[in-house]
Amino acid sequence: MNTASVKYQLAEGVATLTLNRPQRHNALVQEMLDGLRDALARCREDRPAALRLRAEGRSFSSGGDIAAFYQVPRPARADYARRLVGTLNDVILDLLHLPVPTVAEVHGMVTGGSLGLVLACDIVVAGPRAHFAPWYTAVGFSPDGGWTALMPERIGRGRALEVQLTNRRIEAKEALAWGLVNYLAEDGCVAEMTDEVVARLRTAKTASVRNTLALTRPYPERVARGLQMELEQFVARIDSDEAELGMAAFLERTGTRKTNR
């Protein structure tokens, strides 16, 4: 089940799914999203006691790879975005439909659409340096990854709107207070705390867990409608002059501007 950007392992009744593109801060590209779908399908077959979602490197994920978006010629960018964001939506829904509890082990930055991977998990364990930010209004994109379909339910509509409009980041302690994060570990202890949470899940009664998930998780059909709306608006914005200029400015600031056009 392993690919260059995704690793999947099953051991002692626990599945571990690892984002493995650390040199690009685990930015979301098509290969990674396809790998996540394949791994989640395998997890559904394995039926572990729990799924642990983690990432290699300094960051959990920086969201959509803006350099990859920018390198796509403008006439093809809408199709590229539709496939990429559409697959991200599928991954989010796969997580919500997975009949096992999911635990996100989060460190470093979580930006843009990668927040959807966290929002779709049942329990979130974060380190003290974890932070979350949208970046949409700074770059010129429309929100995706559940920022409108899932985030308002998690932290409140007013908070979700303010964070997105002002493009400010949510620090770890604030994320805990708002309910975006369930556990805040000490520095260097995120994996250890996640181990403790997973150990408790392993002792829970299987049928009871599945009923609890089905009754308590966000209603998948409603989430699917919200994600579809995000997708349509994202695709509509990606080929705009505002997004073109926003991407160029962002890549100029970060020193990663490249183009094959």
UniProtKB/TrEMBL annotation:
Signal peptide (residue range): none
Sequence intervals crossing the membrane: none
Family matches, as InterPro entries: ClpP/crotonase-like_dom_sf (IPR029045), Enoyl-CoA_hydra/iso (IPR001753)
Pfam families per the UniProt record, alphabetical: ECH_1
GO function term, MF aspect, one: isomerase activity
The keyword rRNA-binding is assigned to this record: no
Protein name per Swiss-Prot or TrEMBL: 2-(1,2-epoxy-1,2-dihydrophenyl)acetyl-CoA isomerase
Organism: Microbulbifer hydrolyticus
